[in-house]
Specification:
Number of domains: 1
Number of helices: 8
Structural class: alpha/beta
Order of helices and strands: EHEHEHHHEEHEEEEEHH
CATH architecture: 4-Layer Sandwich
CATH topology: Purple Acid Phosphatase, chain A, domain 2
Length: 241
């Protein structure tokens, strides 16, 4: 019998992409679903995306944008004034119900799948106890990345944060997989990852989907929040009218 797990990350307020992903997961009858963080921030529908995460019992891991919401952008020394202003908008969009939910979400989840140990977290940690625990994204491209991977006691480490999906293979039993951003897309395509186990063999595959891009662009154009013009162009390929 085959066991399947669905994984996605960095929805970033793109409700329409999230709806498409969750509908496909339901069609496949996948029961275990993990979101690796950054459900909120950047896009126009943080509240609605969290509602979908909660409604569908998705296992949610905190990303940096959730930590900005819970702890403030002051935790990230690289956060500029525009990011702070945007985070204030997110903060004022959500209420105590969402704060309570996110306060109960972990920074990482670890479990065994047959003989394999799996770790899921938003990104690599400098130190989990820090208010802002994540390494800079550039660490993925530095020479000592293999050492950092080897220091994590798991066969497979799933992360997000770097919006471009990538895989770093150490050996046949050790790899780091960034699942990419399912929300920050510049066309009508989104995606998620399926981890499956059959006959004690792991398989990892990417599922590409269409989503209602036209509706998303309408929602984006109609939304009223800081730095929308810059956000639209850089993260979603949308020119503000």
């Amino acid at each position: 019998m085959e066991e399947e797990i669905a994984i996605f990350s960095d929805i970033h307020g793109n409700k329409e992409a999230l709806i498409s992903i969750l509908n496909d997961i339901k069609k496949r009858n996948i029961k275990k679903v993990y979101c690796l963080g950054d459900t909120i921030g950047i896009g126009p529908n943080p509240k609605e995306c969290l509602d979908l995460i909660i409604k569908n019992n998705v296992n949610m891991i905190l990303g940096n944008h959730e930590l900005y919401y819970l702890r403030g952008t002051v935790i990230d020394k690289k956060a500029d004034s525009e990011q702070k202003e945007h985070n204030n908008w997110v903060y004022n969009t959500l209420n105590e119900k969402y704060k309570e939910f996110l306060n109960n979400c972990p920074l990482k989840i670890e479990f065994k799948l047959s003989n394999y140990k799996i770790t899921m977290q938003h990104f690599l940690f400098k130190k989990e106890s820090l208010a802002y625990p994540y390494e800079p994204i550039k660490v993925l491209y530095e020479r000592d990345i293999n050492e950092k991977i080897d220091n994590i006691d798991s066969n497979i480490i799933f992360i997000g944060h770097e919006h471009k999906a990538m895989k770093i293979i150490r050996n046949e039993n050790k790899m780091l997989i960034d699942v990419g951003s399912s929300g920050c897309t510049k066309n009508e395509h989104t995606f998620y990852t399926i981890l499956s186990l059959k006959d004690n063999k792991l398989k990892i595959r990417k599922v590409s989907l269409f989503y209602d891009r036209e509706k998303f662009e309408r929602l984006f154009q109609d939304a009223n929040y800081p730095e929308k013009k810059t956000v639209g162009k850089i993260f979603f390929g949308i020119d503000i009218k």
